[in-house]
Amino acid sequence: MTILDRFEVAFAACPLVAILRGLTPDEAPAIGDALVEAGFTLIEVPLNSPNPLTSIARLAERFAGRALVGAGTVLTPTQVAEVAAVGGTLIVSPNTDAAVIRATVDAGLVSLPGYQTPSEAFAALAAGATALKLFPADIATPAALKAHRAVLPSSARVLAVGGVTPDSVAVWRAAGAVGFGLGSNLYRPGKPATNVARDAAAFIAATGGSA
């Protein structure tokens, strides 16, 4: 099974990406356990976190066969290679950069670039993006996503990322989001694993655990 096949299975099981910005390698096992035990199958450690590649490597090894792990805030093709070298399979960016998307596709990894406008969305899809990340979603609004969905290919998957709460999941889904990236409403540095588990369960319940 390819990495992209594994992503399809993981996304179908739970269309939520845990964004662990600020995670340290020492925190990674306990936080990862809390998320995976709750049902999360997609985990992202942004590259502006402390020693992110170490955290990614530890999580990827710990949850092999149970969850896909990768990096966020990936801005260059070189970073794509660095993430791949430690076992990361998700490449998530805040922007639409065709060079990063192509490097991700060439490496056989999952490409989740950020976009705000239809032009960026179409450019990302043309470069081979696996799915699109509407970011920051809290300034784009569900109404904007609904307008985007009117012109994007029906096969294009859009994840809303930024400011999403369990209470807002239904509104975003009605606008066309099929998945979500969850940051500070799920995890922030120093947050106890028990609290992460509680909030993870709330998001799982809000989405029903599948797209």
Descriptive terms for the model:
single chain; 211 residues; alpha/beta; nine-stranded parallel sheet; 46% helix; 16% strand; globular
- Give me the side-by-side strand order of the main sheet: 5-4-3-2-1-9-8-7-6
Low-confidence spans: none
Q: Which structural class best describes the helix and strand composition? A: alpha/beta
Query: What order do the helices and strands follow?
Result: HEHEHEHEHEEHEHEHEH
Measured between the Cα atoms of the first and last residue, the distance is 21 Å
Beta-strand percent range: 15-25%
- How many helices does DSSP assign? 9
Mind describing the biggest β-sheet?
9 strands, parallel
| Overall 3D form | globular
Rg from alpha-carbon coordinates: 15 Å
**E-strand count:** 9
Mean pLDDT: 97
Helix content: 40-55%
